[in-house]
Amino acid sequence: MKVGIIGGTGKMGTFFGNVFSRAGHDVMVSGRSTKTRDVDIANQCDIVMVSVPIRETVRFIRQVAPLLSEEQVFCDLTSLKAAPVRAMLESRARVVGLHPMFGPSAESLHRQTIIATPARCDEETLGNLLEIFRSQGARVTITTPEEHDRMMAVVQGLTHYVTLGMAGTMRRLGMSPEDTMAFMSPIYQIEMCLVGRLLSQDPDLYADILMLNPEVPAVLSACNESFADLHGIVTKGDADEFRHFFLENSRHFGDYCARAAGESDMLISAMVRR
Question: Tens digits of per-residue pLDDT, 49-106?
């Protein structure tokens, strides 16, 4: 097949260009610096994939959607799915929303997760597309655009919110990671790595993830309520109430607690051996 990636000169577009090339397909890319235009990709490619910043995705989709035929496959690589998929459905093409759950610095697709939200696609075409990813070691989760966005409000929105809140707390305290280095436990070091990793990246990406997903505000409200409850318990010094709060959460997480303890032990052991 001929695969065209709009925004294919960016990091994620380049990553997926290599994925399709390794699978034996011809790849065209368009970007700010290419002679190939978006319209060329729309007119010439079997698969048309949009890989641009979240807030630009729907606009780019709508620019090429009228040019596509029923024989083409229309995809995007955005962290949100409901709005981009609705926009792609304005075309006549087969539509499959995609969300790679990893960054473009990944070495390969091996053991990486890709979420697929097929909206208008026959089983054979969908199977052929997803097999490209699976054959290179990816795990594919199939869901609806709406369920994807609901889950991402927790998996991405809640995670990034808490991580940014931790960074903001340390800044307000006037305390840097270097100040705490001699006092670090392995778990705290892992936390600091996550904070530093997020802060080393593009703030516009995280703004879009937090602000453009309509499912996020409800999750953040629940987060703030939980922190408020915990703050009240701690400042009152009520050990019984703290134990109740702790055990309620432990029961909710169930068997995952033991599995998480084992997995984090492996991480800690690997860090200590370095």
Answer: 999 999 999 999 999 999 999 999 999 999 999 999 999 999 999 999 999 999 999 9
Cα 160 to chain center, whole Å?
Answer: 11
The alpha helices in 89-144, defined as continuous H runs, are 123-134
Are 26 and 3 contacting, i.e. CB atoms less than 8 angstroms apart?
Answer: yes
* Homologous superfamily assigned to 2-143: NAD(P)-binding Rossmann-like Domain (3.40.50.720)
Neighbouring residues of 2: CB distance < 8 A, sequence distance ≥ 6? 25, 26, 27, 28, 44, 45, 46, 47
Q: Residue ranges per domain, the chain?
A: 2-143, 147-237
What kind and span of H or E run contains 226?
A: helix 216-236
- pTM, 2 dp: 0.93
Tokens describing residue 13: 């577009």
